[in-house]
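Input sequence (194 aa), recorded before submission:
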Amino acid sequence: MNDRFCRAGRWSSLCIGLAMLTGCQALSAPEPTSSMGGNALPSACRWPATGDSLERLRATRDALESQGYAILDTDATLGLVSAERKTAQPGLGAVNSPFGRTGFWGGFGLGGRNGYSLGVFQNFGGGYNTDPVQIERVSVVTPEQTTLVDRDSVMVDYNGYLIDARSYNQPSFCQQLRQEIDTRLNRTAGEATP
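Predicted structure, token format:
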């Protein structure tokens, strides 16, 4: 009888665990390459394309550069501009250390294998800047009649380890970028007409 309850308990805990895992999977975001990936963009990050494709490409490049992004790649046939911006995150490097940035001052150690030893080391400059860096990547593409904006953010510590990665599609960013692109397109159209 006791063995029967033990087996029933195992099966029920297995079923509950599977149900929880299935629920978590159902709530996850769509993969970027899936058919639903493009539909995950906020409505502010997609708008009808206007103007000449080359002028739109230049306006997009200039708008991103004015916000501090470095242009990584452009493709006129795809209507693609991709860029990135790196921003240091001051103070986040002190999270794992109770004394903040201790690399400037060095440290000391005690210990030994078959006896005792004492060591002191000094490290001026090495490891001083341990702040993580946020890397934002933006892709603006106009494959046909619609402009799409996709942005993501990656946080990397000073050793190059990934701390955080997420989609960074904010409607306010897309609205501001659209306004800057439209302003530049209108300025170009105004200069073209006498």
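Checked by second reader. Residues 2-26 form the longest helix (25 residues).
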